[in-house]
Design a protein that fits this description.
With 298 residues, the protein is of the alpha/beta class. Helices cover 41% and strands 11% of the residues. It has one domain: Rossmann fold (3-Layer(aba) Sandwich). A 7-stranded parallel beta sheet has the order 3-2-1-4-5-6-7, with helices on both faces. Bound molecules: NADP nicotinamide-adenine-dinucleotide phosphate (NAP).
């Protein structure tokens, strides 16, 4: 199929767009005239989000892509569909995220939090990079979190340690920052920027689908949930980094609420960033076709 041309407006792809923050981001972009590709893991949930956004924004230029981001073959098929459908991609928001109460392996044999939260953005970004570059100026926004952990490079797959949900989640999200800093360095001068945003703590179903929200968390969210910002409020932080003109040429930053946050020292270490990059290339099979990647400052 010939890619659809973008005769008006710009094109964004948002992962995890059927709920929470991703849906709020997709909604806001659609309401300002963007063509939006929404990535969801379940078709019915994705269709419901598309219908809701379409009704409330009157934007019919919404496109659903269904993929389980834990599965690298599904990610590759997703990228192919996106490239076929969109001849330009001006914005990629790597938002999908989750947590698991117990160690679970992806179809590729990788611990699932690492697979979904870090390797999926890594692989999808690489597979779409040429299209982002040919659409420049373009932006990549990685949704991260506040992290108080370090990457255990010797056991990324949680084979030697007892599994801890929050640590596994934290390390996989730390990967978003390592990735952002290394990619920004490699993309200097390419017209494509990449930043990471901490959206704040907000009301959410995070990890709910994967069984991470036990009774305790459900109770906590009932008790203190009312005091937390909504996903719509949290989305403003991401939208600022994704669309504000003052962020046009800004790359390699860790953003909070419109301001740069202090990045944890471990991601300011280029050797650590490069180390995770190289491991990620191997785990995603990209090292084999690395020559196909046009990342200029490697
Ligand atoms: N909530 C917070 O307080 C908070 C704080 C800091 C950072 N964040 C980050 O914000 C982002 C969005 O989270 P949220 O709070 O909005 O949670 P959410 O409502 O659960 O949204 C997460 C989205 O990711 C999708 N997803 C999860 N696993 C997937 C997979 N294997 N394949 C495809 N899609 C998958 C989910 O799909 P399903 O609906 O099918 O599960 C959902 O659409 C995450 O990256 C999270 O780490 C959240």
């Amino acid at each position: 199929m010939k890619p659809m041309s973008t005769s008006h407006g710009k094109t964004a792809l948002v992962t995890g767009a059927n709920s929470g923050l991703g849906k709020a981001i997709a909604h806001a972009l659609a309401s300002t005239g963007w063509r939006v590709g929404l990535v969801a893991r379940h078709r019915a949930r994705g269709e419901a989000a598309v219908a809701e956004i379409q009704t409330s924004t009157d934007n019919a230029d919404l496109h659903l892509f269904v993929a389980d981001l834990a599965d690298q073959s599904a990610l590759r098929a997703l990228a192919e569909q996106v490239l076929e459908r969109f001849d330009r991609v001006h914005l990629l928001v790597n938002n999908a995220g989750t947590a698991f109460p117990a160690r679970r392996l992806s179809p590729d044999g990788i611990e699932c939090a690492l697979a979904v939260n870090h390797l999926a953005p890594f692989l999808l970004t690489h597979l779409l990079l040429e299209r982002l570059q040919s659409s420049a100026p373009a932006r990549i926004v990685n949704v991260g979190t506040r992290i108080d952990t370090v990457m255990d490079f010797t056991d990324l797959n949680w084979e030697r340690r007892p599994y801890r949900m929050m640590q596994a989640y934290g390390q996989s999200k730390l990967g978003n920052l390592h990735f952002t800093f290394e990619l920004a360095r490699r993309l200097q001068g390419s017209g494509v920027t990449v930043n990471c945003v901490f959206p704040g703590v907000f009301k959410s179903n995070l990890g709910g689908t994967d069984g991470a929200q036990g009774l305790f968390w459900k109770l906590v969210s009932v008790l203190v949930g009312w005091a937390l910002p909504t996903a719509d409020q949290a989305a403003r932080r991401v939208l600022h980094v994704a669309t504000a003109p003052e962020v046009d040429d800004v790359s390699g930053r860790y953003f909070g609420d419109r301001k740069t946050l202090k990045a944890p020292p471990q991601v300011l270490n280029p050797a650590a960033n490069r180390r995770l990059w190289e491991i990620s290339e191997t785990l995603t099979g990209l090292s084999e076709d690395a020559s196909a990647l046009d990342v200029s400052n490697a």
